[in-house]
Automatic annotation (TrEMBL):
Protein name: Mos1 transposase HTH domain-containing protein
InterPro entries cross-referenced by the UniProt entry: Mos1_HTH, Transposase-MT_Hybrid
Source organism per UniProt: Loxostege sticticalis (Beet webworm moth)
Domain Mos1 transposase HTH per the UniProt entry, residue ranges: 7-51
Pfam families: HTH_48 (PF17906)
């Protein structure tokens, strides 16, 4: 059961005039181990008896829980697309978030990863190597034919 639902039950039973101990006993019978602790029941029972109506937590001051917002994801994406060699610390400085959050945005939200030449060669399986060699030979043969052919240019180029 969710915190919100537990608080609703505590509120109802408190408004009926039950003590926190009675509320705890009733919740243990119904919910078993998933019922809130005695401290939580006392806290919320006291809150509701003093006139509180809201079941939600009070807003807290300070930094937001996460720096990963749609706006920050878009900023990081634009910086990377503008300069693919930009460092994570430079992105963190420009956007105003930590390097760890930049790393999370790049890898988890944008699905980007660094792909070096070494890993590209290691990732080829033998079947791919053979097909790439065939493509390479075709390109080489085509280049040789075009290089050995006589150079011809439109007459306007040589006319002075």
């Amino acid at each position: 059961m969710m915190k919100f639902e537990h608080r609703a039950v505590i509120k109802f039973l408190s408004k009926e005039g039950n003590t926190p101990t009675q509320i705890r006993e009733r919740m243990l019978k119904v919910f078993g181990d998933s019922s809130p602790s005695e401290f939580v029941i006392k806290f919320w029972s006291k809150q509701f008896k003093h006139g509180r109506e809201s079941l939600e937590d009070d807003p807290r001051s300070g930094r937001p829980i996460s720096a990963v917002t749609a706006d920050n994801v878009e900023k990081v994406k634009n910086l990377i697309l503008a300069d693919r060699r930009i460092k994570q610390w430079e992105i963190a400085r420009d956007v105003g978030i930590s390097k760890e959050r930049v790393h999370e945005i790049i890898h988890e939200h944008l699905g980007m990863s660094k792909y070096s030449c070494r890993s590209a060669v290691a990732d080829f399986v033998p079947a791919h190597k053979g097909s790439n060699i065939g493509v390479s030979r075709t390109v080489t043969i085509h280049k040789r034919r075009t290089l050995t052919a006589p150079l011809t240019a439109p007459p306007a180029v040589f006319a002075a």
